[in-house]
Design goal:
The chain has 5 helices and 3 strands; from the N terminus they run αβαβααβα. By secondary structure, the chain is an alpha/beta fold. The chain has one domain: 3-Layer(aba) Sandwich (Rossmann fold). Strands 1-2-3 form a 3-stranded parallel sheet, sandwiched between helices. β1, α2 and β2 form a beta-alpha-beta unit. α1 packs parallel to α2. It is elongated, with a radius of gyration of 16 Å.
Length: about 140
């Protein structure tokens, strides 16, 4: 949780001084669900979403957009051994498959593009729809 705070504190003021910039934080779908034995993780991801809104309010008037991408269950090189578990977790989601790193990158690319100039302080879920099946 410290890294986003330090990085935004170091980078956003210079972006604001020049009148433009984009910051995209990486959160998690788990910021909005209860997960046993994961209170610190889910709480820090929820705090990051609130910090994103606050930074957007602070730096947005100076031309800096701040948003968050919240990936769902994601298959990475570091968790390939758990692919059967990840597949099980996502089997009943609308997409029916795990998120891949290039899906997240596409969301970040969109939020940094001119097509997203009116998107400020929001969280873009790139979760294959897992929140639609976990929240009710």
């Amino acid at each position: 949780m410290r890294a986003p705070h330090v990085l935004v504190g170091a980078l956003a003021p210079a972006m604001a001084a020049r009148g433009s910039g984009v910051i995209v934080n990486i959160g998690s779908w788990m910021s909005r669900v209860g997960v046993p034995f994961a209170a610190m993780y889910t709480a820090t991801k929820a705090a990051l979403e609130q910090m994103t809104r606050t930074w957007s309010a602070e730096f947005g008037p100076h031309g800096v957009r701040v948003n968050t991408v919240a990936p769902g269950v994601t298959l990475t090189p570091g968790n390939e051994a758990f692919k059967p578990t990840l597949d099980h977790q996502t089997a009943t989601t609308p997409a029916g498959v795990v998120v891949l790193p290039h899906h997240i990158a596409a969301g970040v690319l969109f939020l940094t593009s001119d097509a997203a100039t009116m998107i400020h302080g929001t969280t873009l879920d790139i979760d294959g729809g897992i929140l639609t099946t976990r929240l009710g």
